[in-house]
Amino acid sequence: MAKRERVVRMSVEQPLWRALTAYRVLTMVYAVLLFVFTREDFERPLVAAGFLAVLAVWTLATLPKVANAAGCTKRFLVADLTIALTGILLTPLADAQAQTQDGATLPTIWTAGSVLAYAIRGGWRWAGFASSLVAVANIIERGEPSRDTLHNVLLVWVASIAIGYVVEVARASERTLARALEIEAATRERERLARDIHDSVLQVLAMVQRRGTALGGEAAELGRMAGEQEVALRTLVAGGLTRRSHVSEDESQGAVVRIVDEPDDGPQDLRTLLAPYAGSRVTFSEPGAPVLLPPAAAGELAAAVGAALDNVRGHAGPGAQAWILVEDWPDEVIVTVRDDGPGIPDGRLAQAEGEGRLGVAQSIRGRLRDLGGTAELISVPGQGTEVELKVPRGKAAKR
């Protein structure tokens, strides 16, 4: 049994969370050691010691919170920033000279870790919010901030916003990479299925077609149907494995096998919608590049082509050949459906519309009219019929 491709996603954020965890521990140790070696400079060392004890316990207890994005909740971020702001505002109470000197605050550079958590978790907007609160707290703590204070505040503000922006770009790149890997894995799986189908189902259908044609009679009809299914299956394999909803009936009952792609949010490739119509009696010619239209417009145009083929099978006879030609122009998309049937007698369309048969009036012209396009039918008795469907890109995009 063949092994399926599995996409392994790597988070670009995880190294940042690890670095933040280490940063918080190291800066907590730095703040404590700074107090130990300069405690004689504090007028109220007990205030500083009490806050630093809380800071140490909080840092160690919340290490799992900054291990990943799931643990770093909004409630935690608010509490963490509150501790940092409280430490800044308590600094003058523990050391009155802090307002007249550019000394360190109680949490020192540990405060930057709290702001970085906002940046990694929520991007540059969250980082800007947190760093602005820290800036206000530092200005209040200084009373009359000096130039160095303003420089430090500006540095934290710019650095945190820059890191937040880089995180957002990294997340977008990660999503793009993951999508590319998924597409690559799906392509490999499609190729594997195509090989399996080619080695089994398609060969069996081809053999049934050859043997049925050789035997004649009812076996020849069975061979013909096997040949049509072989062509349809080859078209499906070549076009890729896409999600489709379908309504199918046997052609002997006068209906077309219709396969329609489920619409996506983005533009739809018209070729993938029309390719399933190809068969032993329907030739499909397409451009080499995708023919992109809004999903609704592409679906309506494909349905109009299906209605035209219904008319070919219903009125041109079971042996009639049909051709589908897709032309992709900058300002419009043109799809032509032509057959080699007996053609339509003059006045027959008006008579059919008067009898309530609205296949051409509604299924074809009505659909194109709703798209802002046109459907032109040219038929010469004895020379077949040609239906030209035109969809302007500008009007189709408004659908």
From TrEMBL:
The chain crosses the membrane at residues 21-39, 45-64, 76-94, 123-140, 152-170. Gene3D superfamilies: Histidine kinase-like ATPase, C-terminal domain. Residues 5-178 form the DUF5931 domain. Keywords: Kinase, Membrane, Transferase, Transmembrane, Transmembrane helix, Two-component regulatory system. Residues 189-237 form the Signal transduction histidine kinase subgroup 3 dimerisation and phosphoacceptor domain. One of its GO terms (molecular function) is kinase activity. It comes from the Bacteria. Residues 301-393 form the Histidine kinase/HSP90-like ATPase domain. Pfam families: DUF5931 (PF19354), HATPase_c (PF02518), HisKA_3 (PF07730). Signal peptide: none annotated. CDD domains: HATPase_UhpB-NarQ-NarX-like (cd16917). InterPro entries: DUF5931, HATPase_C_sf, HATPase_dom, Sensor_HK_TwoCompSys, Sig_transdc_His_kin_sub3_dim/P. This is MacS family sensor histidine kinase. It comes from Streptomyces coeruleoprunus.
